[in-house]
């Protein structure tokens, strides 16, 4: 444990700020969400595999950075240890690998997408649900995608994983009816982050081309929506929010595709 983390962990036990857990907080939407929630007065617990990044951001925003691999049971168990008080969980860790037709689907890419987006969100949710319920006013935000609402060519590994993540989240909304936990699904369209770089295995030219010729959303655009959701009173449940750039009308249509 680094000195910064030790200080933050100590602070977490003594300060009275509500606690927000953000997975995948080392870049993109997760990092922006961690900043946003910290600005709104939360002690943010940031998790990702790149622990140096989450520790650095945690030190900047007065939170706690911890290593987290949502695909690994032991990592999740270590991450949630000591997190007895949790008010908000943002299930953000995820992403896509590849853009292949079903006929040549890469099973390793599929496994990565399902393990991260679907089972990863499930693991963290299961682990933190008792604390969220005990808080008396919990909130679970799932960052799914418009890929959780539609199919698109060559995207079946990602669209099927996002559909599965979303349906799990929507099921929990029913199962928790009567319990003091709100559930919100946020479905973004194109957001310029490292998403495409990860999808195309570091091919920057191919990743950049995705966002050329239109104005995509930024990670902050999505983070502001998470902040709005978190600031609603306990009786208001924003169930599903779809946000896209003006230049995009669906997962299959934008100003470039016509
Ligand atoms: P990003 O910049 O690539 O961020 C992805 C985050 O997920 C990183 O912090 C990464 O951290 C984390 N992550 C990946 N695998 C993980 C694992 N096994 N354990 C823990 N953390 C893991 O992309 P982003 O756009 O911000 O993506 C955030 C979420 O938004 C994803 O769920 C994505 O599917 C969704 N989304 C993105 C878009 C878009 O156009 N960008 C649109 C709709 C939905 P480490 O690598 O450090 O672990």
Automatic annotation (TrEMBL):
Gene3D superfamilies the record matches: NAD(P)-binding Rossmann-like Domain
Xref: SUPFAM superfamilies: NAD(P)-binding Rossmann-fold domains
Transmembrane residue ranges: none
Keywords recorded for this protein, A-Z: Oxidoreductase
Signal peptide (from-to): none
GO molecular function, one term: oxidoreductase activity, acting on the CH-OH group of donors, NAD or NADP as acceptor
One Pfam family matching this protein: adh_short
Record bears the keyword Chaperone: no
Family (UniProt): Belongs to the short-chain dehydrogenases/reductases (SDR) family.
Protein's UniProt name: Oxidoreductase
Organism for this UniProt entry: Gordonia alkanivorans CGMCC 6845
Upper taxonomic lineage: Bacteria, Bacillati, Actinomycetota, Actinomycetes, Mycobacteriales
